[in-house]
Design goal:
Strand content: 25-35%
Largest sheet: 5 strands, antiparallel
Radius of gyration: 22 Å
Number of helices: 2
Order of helices and strands: HEEEEEEEEHE
Strand order of the largest sheet: 1-2-8-4-5
Oligomer: single chain
Number of strands: 9
Structural class: alpha+beta
CATH architecture: Sandwich
């Protein structure tokens, strides 16, 4: 009888531990994806579609809005979906500070560069999935680990008078599905 009770107790303990670790791993893996999906949906709502630039054009803190980590960082974003093919991101850097970052579906950052690391002030990237043929496209390839994710472009605004130049810089930013060269 004692062996049977002990057997069931150990079985229950093993089952409980397995359930805990499986649930924990599912939550740890799925929570960032749910958060990123929410962020992607907000960007898509603002931009009007996937693979389209969305621009913050407000300097400094905003009333009745979420606090930004850096109110002097003016951000352009894009929620991308590469399931229908690669996306082209091209434009000019901003002279005070400029960076571009890409985040995969689970929120991991997989690519970042800034204005000091680029050879020129103009840039052109082709964002694609591994295995997508990008040989017909111009631009530096960036391979996304997941079909969906987000891109962030940050520009430093020293003061409100920088905004006209930043807005012009944002308007020159291209975020769009790519067309083969010469078509």
């Amino acid at each position: 009888m004692l062996k049977q009770v002990l057997f069931y107790a150990v079985g229950a303990l093993v089952l409980s531990a397995a359930t805990f670790f499986i649930t924990r791993n599912v939550v740890i893996q799925q929570a960032p994806i749910k958060v990123m999906s929410t962020i992607e949906n907000r960007i898509v709502a603002g931009a009007g579609d996937w693979n389209t630039c969305f621009h913050n054009q407000t300097y400094g803190p905003r009333k009745n809005a979420a606090r930004r980590a850096n109110p002097d960082s003016i951000i352009s974003s894009m929620a991308y979906d590469l399931s229908n093919g690669p996306v082209r991101i091209a434009g000019e850097t901003w002279p005070r500070y400029w960076s571009i970052s890409f985040y995969q579906q689970n929120s991991d950052n997989y690519f970042v560069t800034n204005d000091l690391e680029l050879e020129r002030s103009s840039f052109e990237f082709v964002l694609a999935l591994d295995g997508q043929d990008i040989s017909a496209f111009e631009g530096v390839p960036i391979i996304s680990p997941t079909p969906k994710g987000i891109m962030l472009v940050r520009r430093f605004a020293a003061n409100a008078s920088d905004m006209d130049g930043i807005i012009a810089n944002q308007q020159a930013l291209t975020c769009a599905p790519v067309d083969p060269v010469g078509t």
